[in-house]
Design a protein that fits this description.
Elements (H helix, E strand, L loop, with lengths): L2 H13 L2 H8 L3 H15 L4 E4 L2 E4 L1 H30 L4 E6 L2 H4 L1 H13 L5 E6 L1 H9 L5 E5 L9 E14 L20 E5 L10 H8 L5 E6 L2 H10 L3 E5 L12 E4 L6 E8 L6 H23 L6 E2 L2 E2 L1 E2 L3
Parallel strand pairs: 3-4, 3-5, 7-8
Antiparallel strand pairs: 1-2, 5-11, 6-9, 6-10, 6-11, 6-14, 12-13
Helix pairs in contact: 1-2, 1-4, 6-10
Length: 323
């Protein structure tokens, strides 16, 4: 048995026909049939029920299909990780970025661009992951620096600087009844379907937004479930819906596509923080860290001035600085 057997078998199950699967795989149908017979012989069990209408997996076939999918997904992840690590070889700085942050905070790109122009001989390897994974990689010395969102480093081994804390807002399509001026009170959301962001990195029992809503006695009505923040916004726009989202979303979504309202009673903030592993930082890494601190100083000065339109809605401050 080899990887091709698994790929061929998965195609056969999903197409429900060896002929259709052979067309999808661009191989001859007799060759595919032979591969499937070899696979059944190797496993010592029947994987398909064959009929004039096509093929149907047996109970063993369904089980093997699920396992084959898992094996291929694991191999794909392993291959991607190996490629990433291969690209990182010879690069002096390894920088992790929490998903979604680079589009929201332009100071990061400005710092990296200026640093690359001034230090063309220094390579920077980037990786994007959840903050939970980034913290683990910092502790394991797989990363030198990371921009974290929501989760803090929380380790004596790591340096950390809190950049700001931001509140949630309600993002509403213009055609939605709740797209009106002023802050939204939580009772207004009762029974109103939300585009909800699923969190594969944690169970619902630990989802901080869900827990905070329940503390206020609100069980959210989930109209659509999105697998990513990008999908959440797209569904809200396409369905004339709404979603609860961090205030920095306003910096990432083009103006006019969604209407935003403050949610002052929610009482929940998200942390944006820079973390680093001092033990792994090279001289170039320390230089980049210094540049990042300078950029954070400017970013915090903008928030403190109160002059930036994105910092508040209807007089409600959306971003807070470390005390």
């Amino acid at each position: 048995m080899d990887i091709r057997h698994l790929r061929y078998f998965i195609a056969a199950v999903e197409e429900g026909s060896l002929q259709a699967a052979s067309n999808r795989l661009n191989i001859a149908q007799p060759a595919l049939s032979r591969r499937m017979r070899d696979l059944e012989m190797s496993l010592g069990c029947k994987l398909f029920e064959r009929s004039s209408k096509g093929i149907t997996p047996t109970r063993a076939g369904y089980a093997f299909y699920n396992d084959a999918h898992s094996v291929l997904e694991m191999l794909t992840r392993s291959s991607q990780r190996a490629r990433r690590l291969g690209l990182e070889q010879g690069r002096e700085i390894r920088f992790g970025i929490a998903r979604g942050t680079s589009r929201k905070y332009p100071f990061l790109g400005e710092v990296i661009g200026a640093f690359a122009a001034d230090n063309p001989h220094v390579g920077v390897a980037f990786s994007r992951a959840s903050s939970y994974n980034l913290v683990s990689e910092l502790n394991e010395a797989s990363l030198d620096l990371a921009l974290l969102y929501e989760r803090r480093a929380g380790s004596d081994r790591l340096g950390e600087r809190l950049i700001h804390q931001e509140h949630y807002v309600l993002a509403v399509h213009a055609a939605n009844p709740l797209a009106k001026p002023g802050p939204v009170d939580l009772p207004e959301l009762v029974g109103r379907p939300l585009v909800w962001l699923s969190r594969p990195d944690m169970p619902d029992s630990l989802n901080p937004l869900l827990l905070q809503l329940k503390r206020h006695g609100l069980e959210p009505t989930i109209g659509h479930l999105a697998d990513s923040a990008e999908e959440q916004f797209e569904i809200a726009i396409a369905s004339a819906g709404m979603c609860l989202t961090p205030a920095s979303t306003m910096l990432a979504i083009p103006s006019g596509q969604l209407h935003y309202r403050a949610v002052p009673r929610l009482g929940m903030v998200l942390d944006l923080a820079l973390a680093w592993n001092s033990e792994t930082l090279s001289a170039a890494g320390r230089l980049l860290l210094a540049r990042l601190h300078e950029a954070i100083d400017l970013h915090q000065a903008v928030i403190a001035s109160g002059e930036a339109a994105w910092c508040q809605i209807d007089g409600y401050q959306l971003f807070e600085l470390p005390g």
